[in-house]
Amino acid sequence: MARAVDEVHDVLQDGEQALRLLRLMLLIRRFEERAEEQYTRARIGGYLHLAIGEEAANVGSIDCLGPDDYLFTSYRDHAAALAVGSSPAAVMAELFGKVTGVARGYGGSMHLLDVDRRFLGGWGIVGGHLPIAVGAALALDYRDVAGAVLCQFGDGATNIGAFHEALNLAAVWSLPIVFQVINNLYGMGTSVEQSSAEPELYKRACAYRMHGERVDGNDLLAVREAAGRLLTRAREESRPALLETTTYRFRGHSVADAGKAYRTAEELASWRERDPIARYAGLLREHDLLDDGQLESMRKEVADEVSEAIREAAAAPAPDLGGLYENVYGDERWREQFERMDTAAPFGERMETRSWQS
Ligand SMILES: Cc1ncc(C[n+]2csc(CCOP(=O)(O)OP(=O)(O)O)c2C)c(N)n1
Ligand SMILES: [Mg+2]
Asked: How confident is the model at residue 324 (pLDDT cuts 50, 70, 90)?
């Protein structure tokens, strides 16, 4: 794979920017560790999928988004929300199901969003958001806006029908979208080798005559270079691409999975040696952009920021249950429908004809 070395290292020409990216990855790591802890304290309900180990794959591409671009991702979405600039307090509050959360506490961990920052979710159905992201790219094209869509998903999603439908349409209509597969080698407990006839996932792009390439997803600057180049191409030439970023999740699939039954301790250890944060920090040290004192104070800063986010989330009120169905039904008359609920009736509601049926 050809890589423009000068471009890869442009970040290193700007010390402030180089440190900003490190800080963001440290913030994500700390946020995830504390979210895991809060889950075990039963302060977070539902599911919780952590991106510990996948920070570079997230930050590297999301950092390339411009003011007219949109972001979509899967349920492993905390890193994406933080990378796009959502406040840690609002993201944590969403995990806690509080009204100050990014989805007002109704979405939870898998359904983060930040419309102001053009982050359109956080989606729980594997691969289900790909056609929706294609729709956003079509909207950009239709409105003649020179923006692009970045759509992230896991390796498991590449075996879902919607993946193929989405890539096909994006290619047929030549839409400005970069599909980023975050290949962490497993879909729950099933390895890519076991589940994919072509385990080099970027090669699937050729079925749609689309550009595909693979980069080391634990190398922040490699991800950033490739994503930047493909997003620019999408914006300027309205051409889709498939970018595969190989990485590894250090934790289990979700907090309910220890992540040990289907992979060996040796495998985990070998990936830990390629920890994206340690690796990037090492690179900054080599270039005299970072010393131990700076790293320590940065770690402390993000730790304090996350502690404060937890404090705020814990203190915030839960949403009003009366609004539970708001934004769920398009028809405002839903209220009337639920007013008729009667748990004692045979089918859960009274049987007379409802006005909204007529
Ligand atoms: C359509 C659909 N099928 C199954 C599931 C259950 N499920 C949730 S996550 C997951 C694994 C997906 O793995 P991958 O796409 O590699 O993403 P990762 O979790 O590794 O980030 C599965 C099968 C689902 N949510 N949606
Ligand atoms: Mg996976």
From this structure: confident
Containing structural domain, residue 79:
5-319
Distance 324 CA to ligand 2 centre (A): 32
Q: Which atom of ligand 1 approaches the CA of 254 most closely? A: 19
Ligand 1 in reach of 190 Cβ (< 6 A): no
Q: Is the pLDDT of residue 59 over 50?
A: yes
Residue 331 located in a structural domain: no
Q: Which protein residue has the closest C-alpha to ligand 1 atom 18?
A: 154
**Is 303 a pocket residue for ligand 1 (Cβ < 6 Å)?**
no
Nearest ligand to the CA of 127 is 1
230 found inside a domain: yes
Q: Does residue 26 lie in a domain region?
A: yes
- What 212-216 contacts at long range (C-beta under 8 Å, 24+ apart), as own/partner pairs, is 212/241, 212/242, 212/243, 212/244, 213/1, 213/241, 213/242, 213/243, 213/244, 214/1, 214/243, 214/244, 214/245, 214/246, 215/1, 215/3, 215/243, 215/244, 215/245, 215/246, 216/245, 216/246
1, pLDDT greater than 50: no
Is the overall model pTM greater than 0.90, yes or no?
yes
Q: For position 262, which CATH number holds?
A: 3.40.50.970
Each residue's pLDDT tens digit, 10-27: 888 899 999 999 999 999
User: Does residue 300 fall inside a structural domain?
Assistant: yes
Count: domains in the chain: 1
